[in-house]
């Protein structure tokens, strides 16, 4: 019987368990805070930011909401980041991507104080992750580690295959899998658009993470019997319903479910975990910056 990994439930338990650390901070007079900076009028980005703010409110993190006109100079965004870096009342800073074309996303990520970089994308934090001394694990791969753990799957000695090599999902996921640490110790293969015979690679996976952004590209034939399948993809495809579209993953769920030992659905799999791990990193940031020892889940 295939286990359907319930990302909503695991994310809820992470949020519940963060209350211990939030109480420890509270006892020292600290309320964790996250500043979200939005320089876009894209409705999807606006929705993501407002969901993150709602999540903060639910667990008792202060959400500081900053909107910058997408037509403003890049300098306005950098000045805002400088102010947030200097503000002792701000523990985490998140600039919602993508930023407008006239702003360099690379420079923006470098401008954020690494101690407040709760996305974990600053080069210092990327380097620490690779070196096995992570300060903030990027939210999506960290959430995936928690999902795999929740399914009772041990990664040690397993063949892990990651489809996708982006800086936000594929690369950090592979880096976590190869760490000599719990949730790591896997023999790891990273596939991408130039990979030859992708199906042969995915069929060898005990743990398969699909993060390509291609709707339903991995079907049941590409999945090893009993594998743990983690579907990161969120793709909008046309559908004959009221909205005119539906969300599907990178995995063809119905056929993959027939072969997988455990599988995440879309929606309700990785997505809620990404949001929960942002809260986790923000609480961790508050502990680090106010020198309060916190017990994290
Ligand atoms: P991305 O930056 O577009 O990267 C996609 C990666 O997939 C690239 O490395 C690309 O290879 C590879 N790829 C594309 N087509 C492929 C193919 N046919 N065969 C093998 N590899 C292929 O995407 P991303 O930001 O990592 O996101 C991936 C998906 O996850 C998207 O659907 C995104 O919406 C979703 N996502 C979900 C969450 C969540 O919380 N659930 C979080 C982040 C992202 P090249 O490098 O060779 O181009």
From TrEMBL:
Organism: Haloarcula nitratireducens
GO molecular function: methenyltetrahydrofolate cyclohydrolase activity; methylenetetrahydrofolate dehydrogenase (NADP+) activity
SUPFAM superfamilies per the UniProt record, alphabetical: Aminoacid dehydrogenase-like, N-terminal domain, NAD(P)-binding Rossmann-fold domains
Protein name: Bifunctional protein FolD
Role summary: Catalyzes the oxidation of 5,10-methylenetetrahydrofolate to 5,10-methenyltetrahydrofolate and then the hydrolysis of 5,10-methenyltetrahydrofolate to 10-formyltetrahydrofolate.
Recorded catalytic activity of this chain's protein: (6R)-5,10-methenyltetrahydrofolate + H2O = (6R)-10-formyltetrahydrofolate + H(+); (6R)-5,10-methylene-5,6,7,8-tetrahydrofolate + NADP(+) = (6R)-5,10-methenyltetrahydrofolate + NADPH
Gene3D superfamilies named in the record: Leucine Dehydrogenase, chain A, domain 1, NAD(P)-binding Rossmann-like Domain
GO biological process, one term: L-histidine biosynthetic process
């Amino acid at each position: 019987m295939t286990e359907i990994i319930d990302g909503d439930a695991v994310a809820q338990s992470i949020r519940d368990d963060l209350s211990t650390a939030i109480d420890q901070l509270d006892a020292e007079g600290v309320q964790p805070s996250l500043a979200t900076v939005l320089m876009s009028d894209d409705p999807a980005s606006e929705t993501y930011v407002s969901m993150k703010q709602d999540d903060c409110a639910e667990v008792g993190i202060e959400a500081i909401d900053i909107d910058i006109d997408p037509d403003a100079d890049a300098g306005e965004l950098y000045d805002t980041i400088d102010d947030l870096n200097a503000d002792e009342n701000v523990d985490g800073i998140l600039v919602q991507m993508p930023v407008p074309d006239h702003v360099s996303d690379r420079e923006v990520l470098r401008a954020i104080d690494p101690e407040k970089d709760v996305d974990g994308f600053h080069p210092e934090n990327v380097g620490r992750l690779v070196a096995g001394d992570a300060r903030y694990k990027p939210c999506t791969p960290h959430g995936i580690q928690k999902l795999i753990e929740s399914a009772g799957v041990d990664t040690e000695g397993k063949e892990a295959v990651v489809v996708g090599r982006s800086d936000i999902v594929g690369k950090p996921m592979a880096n976590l899998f190869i760490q000599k640490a719990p949730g790591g110790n896997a023999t790891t293969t990273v596939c991408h658009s130039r990979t030859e015979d992708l199906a042969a690679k995915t069929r060898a996976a005990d743990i398969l993470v699909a993060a390509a952004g291609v709707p339903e590209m991995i079907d049941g034939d590409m999945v090893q019997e009993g594998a743990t399948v983690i579907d990161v993809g969120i793709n909008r495809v046309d559908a004959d319903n009221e909205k005119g579209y539906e969300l599907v993953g990178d995995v063809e769920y119905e056929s993959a479910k027939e072969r997988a030992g455990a599988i995440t659905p879309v929606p309700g799999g990785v997505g809620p975990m990404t949001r929960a791990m942002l809260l986790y990193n923000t609480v961790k940031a508050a502990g680090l910056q106010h020198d309060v020892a916190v017990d994290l889940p």
